[in-house]
Amino acid sequence: MNLIAGLFNYWVVIFLMMAGFYNVIARGNLIKKLIGLNIFQTSVFLLYISMGKKEGGTAPIVAGADAVYSNPLPHVLILTAIVVGVATTAVGLALVMRIKEAYGSIEEDEIHQRDGEA
Amino acid sequence: MEAHLPVLLIVVPLLAAPLCVLLRHRTLTWILALLAAWTVLGMSVVVLLRVLDTGFISYALGGWAAPWGIELRIDVVNAYVLVLVALIGATVLLYAPASIAAEIPREQHYLFYTAYLLSFTGLLGITATGDAFNLFVFLEISSISSYALISLGRDRRALMASYQYLIMGTIGATFILIGVGLLYMMTGTLNMADLAVRLGPVLHTRTALVAFAFLGVGMSLKLALFPLHAWLPNAYCYAPSVVTAFLAATATKVSIYVFLRFVFTIFGADFAFAQMHLQTIIVPLALIAIFITSSVAIFQTNIKRMLAYSSLAQIGYIMLGIGLVSETGLTAAIVHLFNHALMKGALFLALGGVALRLGSVELEDMRGLGKRMPATSFAFVLGGLSLIGVPLTVGFISKWYLVLAALEQGWWPLAALVLLGSLLAFIYIWRVVEVLYFQPPPTDAPRNEAPLSMQIPMWLLLAAVVYFGASASLTAGIARKAAILLLGGAL
Predict the structure, then answer these.
(1) What distance in Å separates the CA atoms of residue A94 and residue B381, rounded to the nearest whole number?
(2) Which ipTM value was assigned to this complex?
């Protein structure tokens, strides 16, 4: 029981990670690949947030000597990682736009086919 | 002022980058970028000299003390890599204007310098930082700007190459992020020196093992270890010449430094090699990398792509040195990291000149180039000789230490294989030499040497190739110190 309910967050993380990773590998559509990449990154954000949580812990604002606080550092780290993820996605989408202009397609196999002709 | 050198190394190019966007003027941004890069080079040399004297420099960012705040920690290993990155960054920038004038639209030049400086910042940051998460951030700064740099290539295939690099690079970086997260989970610290201490008691846990695996795969992707190298040939082949020279000489080298740092400083050689038997993975992969990629290089008609495959083989040599886990092996790896950057930088700069004058780097277009561009052709031959490992070039020094390290452990077949690898390098370089010198040029082709502003940086690197090839005591001496440090010995 504890293996499933107690580690629920981590099961979600692993599911999202694998779903995202699968999409990056298996999809031929460049946008879908980027979406997969985003899901993959998001799972890592969840992993970090989960490890900062303490049973019964509150926000780390000084409230009294006996209060239990969650660890705020993973949140801060992930704030940075989210920014990095947004930047990566932005650059990725910009590239896909340029690819669409240059090739008229965002399907990987069609693009390779068109390069083969050239 | 001098106390703040470690952080200035990163801050100077970081501040110069947005200034480039504000300036927008082509020549002014170039001068600004050049000033920033050469200042960094000067500072990195001072830092190296100081580190050789004192052991290491620790800088608390924002005044927050080490295990809590972000620490920049520079010892012999990263000071050496810092000098390398700064040297290549500054030299290639000197070369840039003439080359990008032909390859990148004029109105995008200021953006090129901005992205270049950001990538430069990222690489310096990765090298200087002593904080595992900060390393990830700098890694992404350098990667994201290098995706932009690669996509500037004229060929539309540059876009796809850049996209593929983005996907692979992000997966690699995210793997590293997962690994760092798992380490934080076990130890509650992100500071590398602190991690090294606290990780010891929990190294046997499954979390630590998984962290090791994620970090290993992530870093191998970033440093393009066979078979995780698929992004590299296209990225190098279609990027603008300047970008290729810069990235080939620095990006993978910095990733190898990250590998050294994590495996040797944080996890420790004892855990990684005695318990996890990393050797049995790295050595075969390195050998396969050397032989397969060198063989593939022989059949390339695009010389830029050929050199990209040759880079993969050289990464194989470096990893082989690391896989030998001895003082000499690591010395070979670290000295080759430096030497390969010099020669591959010079070779790609020479090719940039060819691309400028011929508009192509296809082998068949380079017929008789020895008569049309004698200086550039000679530079290519010199760089090629170094790739093969001919005495009096830096390539020989690397091979010498590598063979020595293999023999030291009694692995003479390995030494033979290294020499056989040189033979493959000889074949792919000879193909080019044959076309350059022994085939007649097209009848109407004028003598048309690359401009001086492109030749000077190229010859600077080649002078270093010959100088450090003839007297290796400086580079190899520092590399040996770095190797001893990584293996946990006292200086």
Answers:
(1) 40
(2) 0.94
How far is A64 from chain B, CA to nearest CA, in Å?
23
Structural domain count, chain A: 1
Q: Do B166 and A21 touch (CB under 8 A)?
A: no
Distance in angstroms (rounded) separating the CA atoms of residues B260 and B266: 9
Q: For residue range A32-88, list pLDDT tens digits in order.
A: 999 999 999 999 999 999 988 877 777 878 777 777 888 888 989 999 999 999 999
In this predicted structure, the answer to whether residue A1 has a pLDDT above a threshold of 60 is: no
**Which residues in chain A touch residue B167, judged by CB atoms under 8 angstroms apart?**
24, 33, 37, 92
Residues of chain B found within 8 Å of residue A37, distances taken between Cβ atoms:
167, 170-171
Find chain A residues with C-beta within 8 A of B133's C-beta: 77, 80
Q: Does B400 touch chain A (CB under 8 A)?
A: no
In contact, A99 and B160? CB cutoff 8 Å: yes
Domain-embedded: residue A86: yes
Residue B306 predicted with pLDDT over 90: yes
Q: What are phi and psi of B472, to 5 degrees?
A: -90, 0
A46 touches B at CB < 8 Å: no
Q: Answer whether residue A88 is part of any domain.
A: yes
Q: Would you call B164 an interface residue with chain A, using a CB distance cutoff of 8 Å?
A: no
Classify each residue of B132-148 as buried b or exposed e, where b means 16 or more C-beta atoms within 10 Å of its C-beta. bbbbbbbbbbbbbbbbb
Work out the average pLDDT over B306-330: 93
Mean confidence (pLDDT) of chain B: 91
- Among A44, A96, A103, select the one facing B174 at the smallest CB separation: A44
A58, part of any domain: no
pLDDT higher than 70, residue B78:
yes
Q: Residue A27 falls within a domain, yes or no?
A: yes
Q: Which tokens hold the place of B369?
A: 């180039």
Contacts of A90 (CB under 8 A, 6+ apart): none
* Residue-wise pLDDT tens digits, B444-474: 777 888 888 899 999 999 999 999 998 888 8
CB distance from B69 to chain A under 8 Å? no
What CATH number does residue A97 fall under? Answer: 1.10.287.3510
Question: Using the beta-carbon criterion (under 8 Å), do B167 and A37 form an inter-chain contact?
Answer: yes
